[in-house]
Specification:
Blueprint (H helix, E strand, L loop, with lengths): L1 E6 L2 E6 L9 H17 L2 E6 L3 E3 L4 H27 L5 E5 L2 E3 L1 H7 L3 E5 L5 E2 L2 H4 L5 H10 L5 H4 L7 H7 L4 E3 L4 H13 L3 H11 L1 H23 L1 H14 L2
Parallel strand pairs: 2-3, 3-5, 4-6, 5-7, 6-8, 7-9
Antiparallel strand pairs: 1-2
Helix pairs in contact: 1-2, 2-5, 2-11, 3-5, 5-10
Length: 247
């Protein structure tokens, strides 16, 4: 599901999970394990996807098939994966090779530095179009990453070209596809060259508002989110969305 390789002290994690690197319980748990391992084995991490898709977000087909029982297991794994990436103490660079939709966009935005291949796909959070609310971690990651003047807009479910995504804060650089991985590795090396303790403390400071928001209200928000995701009419909305968009 995730292929791990190393370039010097830079860990390269490549999602290779089905046609769209869709997020399910297994992929989320594997991401958590790889990032935990990278704390000791790497000075920085580059996260990317296989082929033309970074990640299409939550595996809605799996969610519909598994129903409420599956979602009770999946939603905590999804939130933990997002938090694990976002709060990783070492530099994380997202090499967005193609579409980064919904949870895929959140995973990308959890990185410290985000590069997207020019013309490779679209990026955005489509949760409300599917009919589901954001888990607390996902919402706070997007609040942190998005340019404030665009935050309310992007929650509406639109997707954007790489350049439009850059304007909204989703990505920092739009680069030629052939240069994506080398540029991402170079960015990771540059961040890794900084003092690791100073970087870790500075990163913690920059993310403190997110941490405090999750501690303050994350549990109650996620309880309300879970109730909506597990509701029969929400599963019906998901089923309809799958039928309309994932033919």
């Amino acid at each position: 599901m995730i292929e791990a390789s190393q370039r010097g002290r830079i860990a390269i994690l490549t999602m290779r999970h089905g046609k769209a690197n869709a997020l399910d319980t297994a992929l989320c748990n594997e991401a958590i394990a790889h990032f935990d391992q990278a704390r000791a084995s790497a000075d920085a991490v580059v996260l990317t996807g296989e082929g033309g898709i970074f990640s299409a977000g939550v595996d809605l087909k799996r969610a519909v098939e598994g129903g409420a029982a599956y979602l009770r297991e999946f939603l905590p794994a999804l939130s933990k994966a997002m938090e694990t990436i976002f709060f990783h103490p070492k530099p994380v660079v997202a090499a967005v090779n193609g579409h980064a939709i919904a949870g895929g966009c959140v995973i990308a935005c959890a990185a410290d530095r985000r590069l997207m291949a020019q013309g490779a796909g679209r990026i955005g959070v489509t949760e409300l179009r599917v009919g589901v609310p954001f888990p607390a971690a996902a919402f706070e990651v997007m609040r942190h990453a998005t340019a404030p003047q665009y935050f309310e807009e992007v929650l509406g479910g639109a997707t954007y070209t790489p350049e439009e995504g850059r304007q909204r804060g989703f990505v920092h650089e739009v680069v030629p596809p052939a240069e994506l991985m080398e540029r991402a590795i170079h960015a990771a090396e540059a961040l890794a060259a900084l003092s690791p303790p100073a970087f870790a403390v500075t990163k913690m400071q920059s993310r403190r508002a997110v941490q405090e928001a999750l501690l303050r209200g994350g549990t109650s928000v996620d309880a309300a989110v879970r109730e909506i995701w597990l509701a029969p009419d929400t599963l019906a909305r998901m089923r309809d969305y799958v039928a309309r968009t994932l033919k």
